[in-house]
Automatic annotation (TrEMBL):
Keyword annotations from UniProtKB, A to Z: Oxidoreductase
Organism of this sequence: Mariniphaga anaerophila
Keyword Isomerase on entry: no
Protein name (record): NAD(P)-dependent dehydrogenase, short-chain alcohol dehydrogenase family
Taxonomic path: Bacteria, Pseudomonadati, Bacteroidota, Bacteroidia, Marinilabiliales
GO molecular function: oxidoreductase activity
InterPro entries reported in the protein's UniProt record: NAD(P)-bd_dom_sf, SDR_fam
SUPFAM superfamilies recorded: NAD(P)-binding Rossmann-fold domains
Amino acid sequence: MDYTALITGASKRIGKAIAEFLAGKGWNIVIHFNDSEEPAKELQSALREKYPQQKFVRIKADLSVEGEVEQLTSRVVDEIGGFNLLVNNASVFSSGYLKETDLSLFDMQMNVNLKAPFLLMRDFATHCKKGNIVNFVDTRIATNKSNYAAYSLSKKGLWELTKMAALEFAPEIRVNAIAPGVTLPPEDKGQNYLLNLAKNIPMKRPGGLEPILKSLDFILENDHLTGQLLFADGGENLGMNL
């Protein structure tokens, strides 16, 4: 049986790593992207060359525009047929304390990080009817720090949505979440930025991509797991080890 995954934000960073990981396990991949068309093309070409028996398609959609989100699942089904796994990986990550957050910042974080996953999960349940959903939240959901107020709130909401959907969609669809911590530096920062951040977490080092991929593998292989959250964060959710 063919297995197909739709990964949002799949052309770069964590999304790209997930696409490569699943492709290596025999999955067909739908590479969603918005602005990163060239990286999406490069990833598609590389995967097609490495795994010629599998299917790799790319689909553009702006997750901040609800009309494009509402069309995305049906476009995937038309392009490649039903799919078995939805990975809500794409997100926007913008700083701002509560007092600094204007309406445009708030709406962008909520639209991409919470509303889009909500609509995609709804449509996956309607169109695909069985399989797995994996939502990417953030270790910040364990705290009440407000320096990324709207972002953190959107991810807290996504975790609550994960549990709600797990209950409603069972047993045909399992819904779980992964919360990364210090994983990759921002695109404008280097490895030293990560090393400094990691000094105060229990494991004292950045995790990189491997803990995330192992967490995803565990979720997919454990067919009695639903409504759960795996912190792939080196213990950061426990608090700072000063």
